[in-house]
Amino acid sequence: MRIYATKIPLDSICTAAIQPFLKVIPLDVYGLDAGIYEYSVNAGNNGAFELLKDNRLAEREGMGECNQITTTVSSE
């Protein structure tokens, strides 16, 4: 995962209003074992998520139950 920012030229006009936004970035977690996984975006937006069970299809039982993911995010 990579996130980039673009510098705004000094002669640009913009408002001082901060606009919050949400960007959902899918993570490739298929095949991972159950456990807690940490991530870092741009070395400052850290978080973690937990796979409650192994994330792969059951061999004999078909798809089985969906994996539940819990996520925590910090912007330190």
Notable traits:
elongated; 76 residues; mainly beta; three-stranded antiparallel sheet
Structure in words:
There is one protein chain. This protein is mainly β. The chain is 0% helix and 26% strand. The chain contains no helices and 3 strands. The chain has a 3-stranded antiparallel sheet, with no helix packed on it. Strand 1 and strand 2 form a beta hairpin. The mean pLDDT is 74.
Quick structural gist:
The chain has 76 residues and is mostly beta strands. The chain has strands spanning 35-41, 45-51, 69-74. A 3-stranded antiparallel sheet has the order 1-2-3, with no helix packed on it.
List the helices and strands and how they pair.
Elements: E1 35-41, E2 45-51, E3 69-74
Antiparallel strand pairs: 1-2, 2-3
